[in-house]
Amino acid sequence: MTDPRMRTRLPAALALATTLAGTAGIAHAQNPQTARGLAATCFTCHGTDGRSVGGVPPALAGQNREYLLQQMREFRDGKRPATVMHQLAKGYTDAQLALIAGYFASVNPGPAAAAPAAK
Q1: What is the mean pLDDT of the chain?
Q2: Does residue 57 have a cis bond before it (omega within 30 degrees)?
Q3: Domains within the chain, CATH numbers bracketed
């Protein structure tokens, strides 16, 4: 026989666990350092904070969030041909891609920073 108390406790426990998981995800998404940390993998090719030198590859800073998100999803899903991007994008979830797109959309476009002089 099933304990009748378990019928009420289990749904309540599941609801609490779902709420806590959702809260953790929101807190994670609201941390700008998390978004910048994910976006840092793009800096090698697209320049620091998405400000590429000479526009090749394209600058990401200040681009439209939805546009960036769509492009990254298309790379990940193999719908847009690429040399490297499709491989890199496969490592991200939709939530992570949204954080990356949001980060670059929030960065003011501008010239790339000059490399430090060698000593």
Answers
A1: 78
A2: yes
A3: 32-106 (1.10.760.10)
**HSE, side-chain direction, 13 A CA sphere, residue 97:** 21
What's the pLDDT tens digit per position in 11-65? 443 333 333 333 334 434 467 899 999 999 999 999 999 998 887 899 999 999 9
Residue (of 85, 115, 82) closest to 100 by Cα position:
85
Q: Residue 42 has which token pair?
A: 């793009």
Q: Quickly list H helices, 31-117.
A: 32-39, 43-46, 65-76, 85-89, 94-106
Instruction: Determine how many CB atoms are found less than 10 A away from the CB of residue 56.
Output: 9
